[in-house]
Amino acid sequence: MPRLWDYFERVISSSDVKACKPDTAIFRRALVELDVTPSQVIYIGDNPYDDVLGAGLLGIPAILLERDTPAPPNVELPTPLARVADGDPGAVARVPTASVQAYYRSAKPIFKSSIYS
Prior knowledge:
The chain is α/β, with parallel strands linked by helices. The protein has helices at residues 14-17, 24-34, 48-56, 97-103; strands spanning 10-13, 43-45, 62-66, 82-85, 113-116.
């Protein structure tokens, strides 16, 4: 049976960079290893602080998987590109193309990597 990380070109953990999200080191490492820019990827995560903020600090758009994870008070967070319901495996694939293409000027987004901490 395939594991989740078998579907990704590269998986980077916090232990790889000795930093935890939302530190940008883990996101920068993914960009370098995949040889992409923030405008070529979308980050998908379930935590508004660790994931949406961490990616947003480098200009990486994020899709938030809604799991009712609270954001810390008094922290201004970037607005995710989209929000999708937890427990719906096809939800990310159904994010309206207009939402994604409104962010991008040319190419379709590339889903290439997973970052976990």
